[in-house]
What does this fold into?
Amino acid sequence: MPTYRITVAYDGTDFHGWQRQRASVGRTVQGELEKALARLTGASRVVVEGAGRTDAGVHALGQVASFALEREPAPAELQRSLNGLLPADVRVLAAGCVPEGFHARRAARAKLYSYLLDCGGVPPPQRRRFAGFVPWSLDAPAVHAVAALFLGRRDFAALASSGGSVTTTVRTVTRSEARFEGTTLVYEVEADGFLRKMVRSMVGGLIAAGRGAATVDDLSRALEARDRRTWPAPAPACGLTLVRVAYPMLG
It folds into this structure.
């Protein structure tokens, strides 16, 4: 059976996350893709594996998914057909064939996320789906100092929310950059993997230090303590986007 890899973008606002759930729970991105593939192929079900199980309200510009089909449509035909069947808030940006056994999640080498946070003033209603908001101006040096805390290989248990099924909370963060574009904080973080709500918890730490609710030393000690109860609350899901997933040899 030929195996395909697709790159998917979606507005996560109206989804209950990536992962397929009971029909009564609501729409999921994985569920919509599997529904479209079943209609396209006539199969009872095509199992789609995603690189990241984004939570409800989280968006994607470069989510990657893989699946096997019984027939072998050309990638361009597959992309065009899927986009004709998917709802308007999901689009397949690219499609291609990959070696048999390729698995979008297990083969992923790194993931890049971006978070947008509007700070102070009145939040523009047009941005409510794609940017978080806090009513305070944030101190840039404190925000940058906290972002630097996350770099390297360390145990991020303090940032992990309940409900995950991971065997270890150790991750390697290779990029953790915060910058201000006017009154908007743009945070970009890349790692070999992320825990449930880990990026949103990182942003929660940036906010706490930036507004003076916690010091950089407070947050450094909280990381070392590995206790979720000592870490600030996660930022809202709406500002988070999965930007890119990297794979060895595949880009």
Remarks:
- Residues 17 and 106 are 19 Å apart (CA to CA).
